Amino acid sequence: MFARDLDYSITRIKGIGKVTAADFAALGVEKACDLITFFPRAYDDRTVMRTLADIGPEGGSINTVVAITDHSHYMSKGQRVLKMSARDLKSGRMLYLHCFGRSFMENAYPVGTSWYINASVTKLGSSYSASSFTLAESEEKAGIGMILPIYPLSGTLTQKTVRKAVQSLLSVRFIHFDDEIPASLVRKHGLMPMDEAVRQLHFPSSNSDLDRARLTVAYTELLHMEIRLLRTRKAAASQEGPAAVSQLEKRLISSLGFNLTADQQKCLDEIRRDLDHGHMNRLLQGDVGSGKTLVAWISALHEIAKGGQVAFMAPTELLARQHAEGAAGLLSALGVNVAFLTGDVKGKERGYLLKALKDGSIDLAVGTHALFSKDVAFRKLTLVIIDEQHRFGVEQREALSQKGRNVHVLMMSATPIPRTLAMTVFGSMDISTIYTMPAGRKPVVTHIVDEKNRERMYASIAVEFSRGHQAYFVYPRIDDEGESDLKDVTSMYTFLKEKYPDVPSALIHSRLPEEEKIRILDDFRAKKLMYLVSTSVVEVGIDIPDATCMVIEHAERFGLAALHQLRGRVGRSSLQSYCFLVYYGQPTGDAVERLKVMRESTDGFRIAEKDLQIRGPGEFIGSRQSGFLRLKVASLVDDVELMAMAKEDAEAILRDDRGLLREENAMLRILLTSPAEGS
Ligand code: ADP
Ligand code: MG
């Protein structure tokens, strides 16, 4: 049987009554199969002796032999409490056992007797004491030599009740768990039979057995996940050789004045192969400034050279315009016709554009989602590129690929996602990743600044101004209404005007009219303005090479992803850039952690992994998408290697037996094929 076959209520298990069942239900354990996979969150390892000498100032648990040397009493909250003195026979140190409400112990553990003890000890000065302990005459009773499971608890549940319930279920005679992966893989990776692994995970007989049991169950989960993911994909990626590079692409590349990075090349190879031999549904991810947009333009040329049209969609008008200008600058000289289309393009001009799109005289249309309004038609749209995809909903993406038949889709994301999560969240897409930055970039130097000590920061920014470099001052958006932050950002602006009286600047926030924002950014780019004070509108995509300073006020309130995005606005050229993370008050644990991560790393992928560690996968990607992530034992953070192995194995299985029809894969078919898609 499989664990999932134990499809009956836990109330049928010996010793589980109504109250216990309700407490279990609060933990998501309602059926016997839930209890089986309700794995310990930790273990109390009593296989090694730990004496008082091993306990540091933070306390900890001991596992040793003591002799009772004295009994005394004291009063606490009107109660007479027994205090037993005990000598740790292994370290010679003294331990005081406080027996609240357990005066009977006076008779049970007379002075002069010796006991095995397991206790959780606190250390105050040089004195050790414990109020939670077990004394036993045999090692076995004290659990010495055992590894005891520690389960999550709720309500009246105790470790003892949960252990008993699991024990009682596992001892039912007909229960035997079959392997959930093919026998060849159990052998290949030296795994345990599933039945043994489940039992060992609950009640390990040794640390090495526990490790192997964990590996077995984690690998099984990951293999299942990978197979599910791979099966949701459409056609398998093409196995054809490298695609031809058109003259147009070659001309652009040779005109750049720099070489593509190895990662850019590799991504382009993958994209071209899709475009020529397959159907592309690909995510291109890379940190801000890693050169994704350039890869996108070259991919566009690949289609244009074949006579196709390309649509490039950006999330805001501002970014769309920046991209349209960038594209025109790079591609017009090659004879490519670039057009810019947003909701604001109206009347005659719009009519002209729509006609040109329809008759195919425009090769590349850059715009907002307006590109996909009803009245827009293309002659031969073959590729859609979506910048900053996380801002678009699924429906918009769908609407867009319906503008052409079998349109290739390339999405770009500057929010690096750890490898493990990317495979999961974007399971139905192929992924190309740019890990390394173009050569010559200097990592942004990041300072953490207590807001009370901001003067030095202003002085160093003044030096940057004197060199003709520019700065951003960002205030967080505190709530969506934005009244209060507008006030904050406005007073910051006034303050800075006094601080830098001769430096031209502007205030930019989300409620300014679009033309106003565009004008300000144009002036900033032209260096008519030297700094911008803003709410987080500069977060996405703005590209000003001479901006070298980023000041983030209330940095303690921003998440890691946002901090990283904001910092990505500087360090976009060979100039040395600086980021100042200004905090207020006493930041809490997670906030301190985030600021440290920012100071220590500029690598978006590392930061994303840290973020994942701090927040956990559900939070990280939003709970709606995390269904796939309900792993009980495997960890998307710590099991990267195992995951890669599982992925490889999953691919091999599906390559030979896509329908999972072979006898050796029968369990996979049963477990992973939902009735609807069943064969
Ligand atoms: P992204 O879209 O990933 O944020 P961009 O494509 O906008 O990055 O590139 C950022 C800057 O780096 C641009 O000015 C671009 O011309 C430049 N760039 C791109 N690739 C390279 C490279 N291989 N070497 C040097 N500079 C590059
Ligand atoms: Mg970009």
Short account of what is shown:
This protein has 679 residues and is of the alpha/beta class.
Structure description:
By secondary structure, the chain is an alpha/beta fold. It has four domains: 48-145, Beta Barrel (OB fold (Dihydrolipoamide Acetyltransferase, E2P)), CATH 2.40.50.140; 178-232 and 641-679, no CATH class; 264-434, 3-Layer(aba) Sandwich (Rossmann fold), CATH 3.40.50.300; 445-601, Rossmann fold (3-Layer(aba) Sandwich), CATH 3.40.50.300. The chain is built from 22 helices and 20 strands. The strands form four sheets. It has a seven-stranded parallel β-sheet with strand order 10-11-9-12-13-8-14, with helices on both faces. Strands 15-20-19-16-18-17 form a six-stranded parallel β-sheet, with helices on both faces. Strands 2-3-4-6-5 form a five-stranded mixed barrel. A hairpin with a 5-residue loop joins strand 3 (79-88) and strand 4. Helix 9 (262-277) packs parallel to helix 10 and helix 19 packs antiparallel against helix 20. Magnesium ion binds next to helix 10.
Q: Which residue ranges are poorly predicted, with pLDDT under 50 across at least 5 consecutive positions?
A: 234-238, 622-628, 675-679
Q: Mind telling me the CATH class of the largest domain?
A: Alpha Beta
Percent range for helical residues? 25-40%
Radius of gyration: 32 Å
- Separation of the first and last Cα atoms: 21 Å
